[in-house]
Hints:
Elements: H1 2-19, H2 30-33, E1 55-56, E2 59-67, E3 78-82, E4 101-109, E5 119-124, E6 127-128, E7 130-135, E8 138-144, E9 150-153, E10 163-170, E11 197-198, E12 202-207, E13 212-220, E14 225-232, E15 240-248, E16 251-259, E17 264-267, E18 283-291, E19 294-303, E20 308-312, E21 318-322, E22 325-326, E23 329-334, H3 348-360, E24 365-368, H4 375-384, E25 387-391, H5 416-433, E26 439-443, E27 445-446, H6 454-464, E28 469-470, E29 473-474, E30 484-488, E31 503-510, E32 512-514, E33 530-532, H7 535-555, E34 557-563, H8 587-598, H9 602-605
Parallel strand pairs: 23-24, 23-34, 24-25, 25-26, 26-28, 27-29, 30-31, 31-34, 32-33
Antiparallel strand pairs: 1-12, 2-3, 2-4, 4-10, 5-9, 5-12, 6-11, 7-8, 7-10, 13-14, 14-17, 15-16, 15-18, 18-19, 20-21, 21-22
Helix pairs in contact: 3-4, 7-8
Amino acid sequence: MTKVILAAAMLATASAAFAWQPAGDKIMTSWGENLDPDKVWQEYPRPIMERPQWQNLNGLWQYAIVPVGQAEPETFQGEILVPFCAESALSGVGKEVGDKNELWYKRSFTIPAAWKGQRVMLNFGAVDWKCDVWVNGTLVGGHTGGFTPFGLDITDALVKGDNSLSVRVWDPTDKGPQPRGKQVSKPHGIWYTPVTGIWQTVWLEPVPDTHITALRTLPDIDAGTLSIDVLNNADNAKGLKASVTVLENGKPVASGSSVNGFPVEVQMPKDFKLWSPDEPNLYDLEVALIKDGRQVDKVKSYAAMRKFSKKRDNNGIVRLQLNNKDLFQFGPLDQGWWPDGLLTPPSYEAMIFDVDKTKDLGFNMIRKHIKVEPATWYTYCDRKGIIVWQDMPSGDTNPEWQNHRYFDGTEKHRTAESEATYRKEWAEIMDHLYSYPCISTWIPFNEAWGQFKTPEITEWTKAYDPSRLVNPASGGNFYTCGDILDLHNYPGPAMYLYDAERANVLGEYGGIGFVVKDHIWVPDRNWGYIQFNSPKEVTDQYVKYAKELLKLVERGFTGAVYTQTTDVEVEVNGFLTYDRKVSKMEEDRVRAINTALVNSLKQKTD
């Protein structure tokens, strides 16, 4: 009888997998073409705070698109492959939801017997934008914010055996003030397809009654210390002790503890190893929470000893520094979009392919452009030695709100709702990414898209995280605040402003276009700032610009960003085609000139 039931269950799973097909007729990556819907995003989704037990809820769920305000539908319209958004090909749906509708999800799950006696958390990597969650018909919570993870304690709503899970999502895209990056309801030019719903991993995990909720890790290479703030869900810190062990190659090398809710201060060995793009040394952490002398919770994490700062050199130029040494930070504008998954990479292997390609091309940095990636992306950058400039996803009600050519100090006015939404979501992003060593710089605004109260927001960002640099407005409007003046110029590099008190960078340039037949999003409307017809022509122009940039390093630039990693929708100015199947430049020549740029300031300080 058991074999019959098992065989029937296997047949049902196989039938469901067979029924799933990508939607639409757009180009796809090879990872998307070979996707197994039964094995979608199986990697543990939160490597900065890892627990040994978890249950992945990715896979086929039921879905329905219904008008706003209706009750949960009695019947659903089909299946959607989580964690791909409804508009994407890999979801199997390929339908626009829009601001007049809500997207409902439904599935069932069971809790392992081994989790008995523990609390159960339901975790979402990211849901765009507003969601509410029910378990067995009981509302267990919700969240607003399209780029950050959240967890809900669902223990008190659980029953024995099968449990039902329902999720309702509403996303106004460009009809609302919320941060959304490049999404618009009518894609064109530099504006892309909307994303609605779950777009990162969903998972369950058991936790004890008193448990660790987050870690905030802060290295100080000058003092030789590592501070770890062990946050927990206890009402007060009385009777709680936090303990941290630092390991190198599996062997303990340092430890520390604290009580009364204070951060743990660990004195590192005198010969501690620094993290850098050349040597991305990481230390493993074992973090425990002890209550009345008994360990009640334990997680694994990691950290790096590194320092991002700025300093005036012998010529009076303010330079970006890593570990107290000048370093020219050079990388691509990386938007993180995919033809088949949109905001969601088709797989972990696909996601890290872009990072590996960036490193292989000789870059030491990535500007993550108005998007927040899955946590596993930042961990991979930590391991590979890639510095990250992290943008805040832009927003407000006009997607083309760009006043960066006006330098008279005038800023647009946001409503109270819009400002509150911005502040809430920017704080959540910084909280979420605080402990990842790779992030060097926060960028609150890009090209004045939704830019407001720039000095105040810059000061607030710097106070929220004093350990990193703040680039107030990549591409303007410009104010004398923060750590960096960031110019944009297309197509070639140019220095048309200079600030003697801050680091000067070229936050965007390039955009050299090249259409590769059979690897484009649409047959017409493709564009780049300038266009060529062969890899040699594109590479010649790239090298020409890079040599011009080398001269500008001498004049004062201390970092630069080339547009861009891949083609995106109708933009054809990537190193790679949108489907990642064709490299559009002569990579050896690109690597050689990139290496010269990233080493341009090293020789002066080594």
